[in-house]
Amino acid sequence: MRKSQVERMNKVNELIELISSIDRRFFYSRSKDKVAKFIEGKTTVFYIDDYTQEKIHLRSVCKDRGFSHGGTLWGLIHDFKEWIITGKHANGKNGYGGLYCPHWGYSEEGMKKVQEKGEEIGFLKS
User: Fold this and answer.
1) In 3D, which of 34, 16, 22 has the Cα closest to residue 84?
2) pTM for this one?
3) Terminal CA-to-CA distance of the chain, rounded, Å?
4) Which end of the chain is more exposed for a tag (fewer CB within 10 A), N or C?
5) What angle do CA 115, 126, 98 make, to 5 degrees?
6) pLDDT by residue (tens digit) across 103-112?
7) Where are the domains of the chain?
8) Alpha carbons 78 and 90: distance in angstroms, whole number
């Protein structure tokens, strides 16, 4: 992977850390005390699920085995992957409104923190 892709991957992992620390704590497994993350591959990134701890390739829009969340987060991690690989804004491209989705069940304050972090790292357009 290119240096710029690794930098974007690390920024997305920071965002996932924030998401996992507030409100409903998406991407965090209480029973395993683990947070989901992206890891570097030779030419792409892989997603490590917080609950199953399985390495997921994200090669299709159909949910892979080992993914422990619903469709909203499945779409979001595909948005993250696209931004990591291409650097092009992809928020909401894979459905469900991305970081602006009103159906997360997060507080208004929590969503604002997530969106501000998304802007800070460059995932969301300012």
Assistant:
1) 16
2) 0.93
3) 26
4) C
5) 40
6) 899 999 999 9
7) 3-121
8) 9
Mean pLDDT of the chain: 93
Q: What is the sign of the dihedral through the CA atoms of 115, 120, 123 and 124?
A: positive
Long-range contacts of 40-44 (CB under 8 A, 24+ apart): 40/1, 40/6, 40/9, 41/1, 42/1, 43/1, 44/1, 44/81, 44/85
Convert the pLDDT of each residue in 40-87 to its tens digit.
Answer: 999 899 999 999 999 998 876 566 678 999 888 999 999 999 999 999
Sign of CA dihedral 22, 27, 106, 93: positive
Give the model's pLDDT for residue 59. 79
As a whole number of angstroms, the distance between CA 94 and CA 80 comes to: 10
Given this model, what pLDDT does residue 63 score? 67
* Phi, psi angles (nearest 5°) of residue 23: 45, -115
The answer to whether residues 29 and 67 touch, using CB atoms and an 8 Å cutoff, is no
pLDDT at position 64, please?
Answer: 66
